[in-house]
Amino acid sequence: MKQKQQIAFLLDTLDTYYPKEVICYLHHRTPFELLIATILSAQCTDDRVNQVTPGLFKQFPNVEAFATAELKDVEEAIKSTGFYKNKAKNIIACSRRLVECFNGEVPSDIESLVTLAGVGRKTANVIRGNIFHIPSIVVDTHVKRISIRWGITPYEDPVQIEKDLMTKLPDSHWIRYNTQVIAHGRSICTARSPKCLNCMFLSHCPYGLVHSQKQLPIEAQEALAQGHMY
User: What keywords appear on the UniProt entry (predicted)?
Assistant: First the structure.
């Protein structure tokens, strides 16, 4: 099957089973809060971040409060998100740069965003897509894993995956591709023990077609190995 046909099927099926509207799983009220929440989400679940941020933003209500915060206070507030020492340093440095260079406002262009401490292309694209509605592809762990399993990108490096997907997916799907794939990755195409036999994408998934055979009963696997239908 040609890849264009495969991608068309994948996108249509995503739209059928998952919401078309963009869903942000990190709770926030402002662009700055989403920026901080996204920095915290590195090597941490969204649920954990959402447990931490209400108290964090009550203690530090705006960018100026973070910019003047004591390092130990930020560390203590975000400790449960993991890697808290480095995250705290980045959050304070990021906030200071926003105050000093951007009048306390979160910029929309990726060139400016990636100059902020703790902000790479993934975080920048989360902000661009969810706040400024600029077509962007966010390569998180789900997008990386599932895009590779589907065989629509051969790359392992997130930046290469992002650029590759930008050439293959219509920009009208860029933003929602991430949120839809996250939903699929959490429910069916999990990192461990994916539910391939229950997957609506199975007929168009090279990984699933191989892996699903391992999920069949032993007698079915033996029949397939011998060239018989089960």
Answer: 4Fe-4S, DNA damage, DNA repair, DNA-binding, Endonuclease, Glycosidase, Hydrolase, Iron, Iron-sulfur, Lyase, Metal-binding, Nuclease
Feature table: binding site: 189, 196, 199, 205
Domains by residue range for the chain, with CATH = 1-19+138-230 (1.10.1670.10), 31-130 (1.10.340.30)
| Residue numbers belonging to the annotated binding site for [4Fe-4S] cluster | 189, 196, 199, 205
| pLDDT (tens digit per residue) in 97-127 | 999 999 999 999 999 999 999 999 999 999 9
Residues classed as catalytic: 122, 140
